[in-house]
Amino acid sequence: MPELQGQCMCGAVTVTATPAKEALGACHCDMCRRWTSSMLVTFPAEPGYAALGPVKTFTSSDWAERAFCSDCGSALWYRITLPGEMHGQTQMAAGLFGNGTGSALKLELYIDKKPEGYAFAGERRQMTQTEVEAMYALPAEGDSQ
Questions:
Q1: pTM for the predicted model, two decimal places
Q2: Domain range enclosing 129
Q3: What ranges make up the beta strands (E) of the chain?
Q4: Which of 26, 90, 92, 112 is spaced 20 to 30 A from 20 at the CA atom?
Q5: Would you say residue 124 lies in a domain?
Q6: For residue 65, what is the domain's CATH number?
Q7: How many CA atoms lie within 13 A of 18 on its CB side?
Q8: pLDDT tens string for the chain (145 positions)?
């Protein structure tokens, strides 16, 4: 897959990333909806992505951190910090790259949290809160991603 060039809303952070696969995912968890005021749409990034500029990270749960531009607040990525097989996996915010991803939506997470008014065309894998949290082997107490 080709390397993509992107930037935050104000242009202070530039990002270079290569999609690990040609697929977008949408997360409807409470935290992503608070962070974006909608759903977070991402693609899995290959290791070796780069971000230059005023990047700030926030540990948002027991298993992940979120990165954003400290100037404009644009969401940059969501990275798994949990030790183990998934450690370091990064979901890059697709909006940083304009229409450059060329990928279709293939996965929706926390589908049971999705607001009624949201609808996407086409088929894709859908996972509930319980299914997502089982991947991290964490108790399903609340929505703490």
A1: 0.85
A2: 4-135
A3: 4-7, 14-17, 24-27, 40-45, 50-52, 55-59, 64-69, 75-80, 90-93, 105-109, 125-127
A4: 112
A5: yes
A6: 2.170.150.70
A7: 7
A8: 789 999 999 999 999 999 999 999 999 999 999 999 899 999 999 999 999 999 999 999 888 999 999 999 999 999 999 888 889 999 999 999 987 777 889 999 999 999 998 888 889 999 999 998 887 765 444 554 5
Alpha helices in the chain (DSSP H): 30-36, 129-135
Q: Has residue 12 been placed in a domain? A: yes
Tokens read off for 16: 């270079």
Residue 129 to residues 7, 19, 27, 110: CA-CA distances in angstroms? 31, 25, 10, 5
| 143: in domain | no
Looking at the structure of the chain, the number of domains it has is: 1
Burial (Cβ within 10 Å: 0-12, 13-18, ≥19) of residue 122: exposed
Tokens of 105: 């939506």
Say which residue the tokens 């940083």 belong to. Answer: 96
